[in-house]
Amino acid sequence: MAKNTQPVLKRARTLGIEPGFVGVYKKSKRKPKQIRRKQSNYALQLTEKQKVKFVYGILEKQLRNTFKKAEKMSGNVGENLLMLLEQRMDNVVYRLGLASTRREAKQLVSHAHFTLNGRKMNIPSAMVKVGDVIAVREKSLQSPKFKALAENLKGKAVPGWLELDAANMTGKMVALPSRSDIDAPIAEQLIVEFYSR
């Protein structure tokens, strides 16, 4: 499995976003360089595409395939793309607060610590549908990581399209995510223009 090993703070600074959008709450001690030249349309589109890949922790092929699915859906293609990315298993685990970053969520899902509708799930890119229930596996509940997490989940706020049962360490997708639920500073129309060239 391929993975991105670039330093998070450096990549976030290059793309011009806060590291908090990927779940990292550190500050860089380096001062950013001032770039004054005007960017071309292509450069703006490419930057937005790279931003989405970085925030959701996916590779080019995965993003392109997701874009093809979004094109086939009815409605705004850019919003459909972001909605499909939000429905990924690793992202839902992160949004529920069962992992501190999307990278950690991806690793926990890959190591089969979660179930989807009662069945063991180890595919981070699996799509979660409305009504699906995500739970921490019984075997994993005994690990120190999840025991410590159980205390932190009480009173945790989750997006409106998800429902969290902190006592049982389960979550449910109650609705499809909308554009207003996605807080990352992404101009999805530029991504549509990039892939429509």
TrEMBL record:
With S5 and S12 plays an important role in translational accuracy. One of the primary rRNA binding proteins, it binds directly to 16S rRNA where it nucleates assembly of the body of the 30S subunit. This is Small ribosomal subunit protein uS4. The gene is rpsD. GO terms for biological process: ribosomal small subunit biogenesis; translation. Keywords: Ribonucleoprotein, Ribosomal protein, RNA-binding, rRNA-binding. Part of the 30S ribosomal subunit. Contacts protein S5. The interaction surface between S4 and S5 is involved in control of translational fidelity. It comes from Candidatus Avidehalobacter gallistercoris. Belongs to the universal ribosomal protein uS4 family. GO terms for molecular function: rRNA binding; structural constituent of ribosome. The keyword rRNA-binding applies. Transmembrane segments: none annotated.
